[in-house]
Every structure is written in structure tokens, then in C-alpha cells.
Amino acid sequence: MNRAPRADAHRQYTRAPVSDRAMPAVRRATLKKTLAYLMTPLFLLVWGLLLGVFQLVQVIALRGFGAAAHRRSVDLMNLLMIRALWIIGVRSSARFSEALPTDRAIIFVANHQNKFDIPGIGWHLRRFAPKFVSKIELGRGIPSISYNLRHSGAALIDRSDARQALTEIGRLGSLIESTHTSAVIFPEGTRSTTGELQSFATAGVKILMKRAPNAVIVPVYIHNTWALNRYGGFPMTFGERISWTVLPMIEPQGKAPEQVVALAQASIQRAWQAQRLAA
């Protein structure tokens, strides 16, 4: 006697249908991944060319025309680096919560997600001549980036040598105090590869505040740059939206450095939570 096939056996060899509502999302994800593989090589080529060309441009600007010309050349490089992200469908924006002073030093305290954080800060905050606290390894071997770090006044710190690191950060604090420019520090100490905020260390901000006693503290929330490397090193993610938000100033007078850092972290945390709710 022939038996009818069992329903559960039939289910073993058939896939559950994808709902009509889910199909567009699946197709979009597939298309974005395909575009990522196609456009990432072009993007990396353009970025490499920019780094090579602006190594020469910076040398000519600094040696031939001085520090102001060098700074303008770096501003242009940062702009072009951000615009190059268009190749992989990335759109970026910046928002200022309030006008910032130009007659006193500023200490920008930011979260850190990706190497692309740097040109964004450099371009959007160019009016304040930002100088970074950076690990000493970046001062050598990277065209344009290393040259700028060595000649812009940045603090290049050896994380294995606390005395050297604090001395170098102190030098930067004195520099921004005397020139009414700005320092940028990432108190997390390392990049977040998931976008989640990490705990903020106090030591670097404390030294900057000590050497630049008239500086104002300004938190900066960097959004979604981690996602540019969602797949790892290759390919870059296609079509992301990234942003830099300059949050309200914190007046440090009468506050301990630990309190100032806690306030900056809380401000960035609120901005992070607001973005998550809006997503």
C-alpha cells in the first residue's frame, strides 16, 4: 500500500517562505554588500593617493610658507578625506549645540570609534586649530598623518611610559593655553569597535586642565563611525550615516577634574542614547 508523505518530512525539504515585507530589506542588504566589495578598492586607492599627495603638500606649505599655510593644507586634506567617503555611499554631518569661544583654550573630550574620527574632527573643528593626544606610534610611518602629528603640536604619548605621556600632554596644555587653540583627547584610550561607550580615564584631562586653567571643556559625540568597518578591514561598509555632535560646554571652574570628566561622559552618553532611540 502506498503511503502519503508525512507533512513533517515535507517540511524538511522546503524552506520557509520569506515574507513580502522582509524581501526588500534582504535585497537592500545584498545590494549594499555587493556595492561595498565593488567600491572599497576605489575608495582605498583615493585615500592612499590623498595621503601621498598631501605629504608633499604639507612639506612645501610648512617649509615654504610657514605654520599657517601648513594648517590650511591639513584642513583641505581633512575635507577631501571626508568627501572621499562618498565613494562608499557614506554621508556625514556635524552639529554644534552652541557657539564656542575663540578667545580661550578649548579641551575637546570625545568618544572614539574609528580612524575616520580624526579627519572629521580636524575639518569640523578647524576654526579652533585642534591638536590631538595620540599614541607615539602614529608619529612615524603613515604618510601625511605622521607628518601632521609631528608638526602640528600634537601630544605623542608613549603609553608604556606614564611620565613621558603626562609630560607631553602637559606641554600640549601649555600650548593651547598660550595660543587660545584646542586639544582633542579620547579618554576611552582605545577605539570602540561596536559603538558602545567605554569608561573614561581622568589622568589626561586632568593634566590638560592643570596646564590650561582657563580652558573650557567641550564634549563631542562621534556617531556610527565604527560601522564603517562592520565587516572588518575589507570591505568597507556601504551607505552608512556618520556624524559629529559638539555638545554644550562645561565650565571647569570650581569642579574637580574627576567631576568634569564624569560630566563630559554623561553628556556623550545622553547623546548616544538619543541616537539609539532615534534609530
Strand-helix topology:
Elements: H1 7-12, H2 22-65, H3 67-84, E1 91-96, E2 106-110, H4 117-124, E3 130-135, H5 145-151, E4 155-157, H6 162-179, E5 182-185, H7 203-211, E6 216-223, E7 241-246, H8 257-278
Helix pairs in contact: 2-3, 3-4, 6-7
Describe the structure.
This protein is α/β, with parallel strands linked by helices and 279 residues long. It has one domain: Glycerol-3-phosphate (1)-acyltransferase, CATH 3.40.1130. Helix content is 47%, strand content 14%. It is built from eight helices and seven strands. It has a seven-stranded mixed beta sheet, sandwiched between helices. Strand 3, helix 5 and strand 4 form a beta-alpha-beta unit. Helix 2 runs antiparallel to helix 3, helix 3 crosses helix 4 and helix 6 runs parallel beside helix 7. The N and C termini lie far apart (59 Å).
